[in-house]
Write a structure and sequence with these properties.
The protein is built from 3 helices and no strands. It has about 70 residues and is an all-alpha fold. The radius of gyration is 11 Å and the shape is globular.
């Protein structure tokens, strides 16, 4: 996991990232391992840092990256 010390997000963006994480995990068959959840969260965090604020977009991108691994 990358070092994101010092990154600051507004509460609205934190909510959007949480929505994206919940939506992404809900689309996967259970059980979803903690390592997969961590990969998804890392992806969503990076997309948020890059300026993406839409939960649907962050979720879709995270799923695409998960498929490519």
């Amino acid at each position: 996991m990358s070092k994101d010390h010092g990154a600051v997000f507004k509460p609205e963006l934190i909510g959007a990232m949480d929505d994206a994480l919940q939506k992404t995990v809900a689309t996967l068959p259970e059980p979803v391992s903690s390592s997969v959840v961590q990969e998804i969260a890392t992806s969503i965090l990076q997309h948020a840092k890059d300026g993406n604020t839409k939960p649907d977009d962050m979720s879709r991108l995270a799923l695409l990256e998960l498929q490519l691994r």
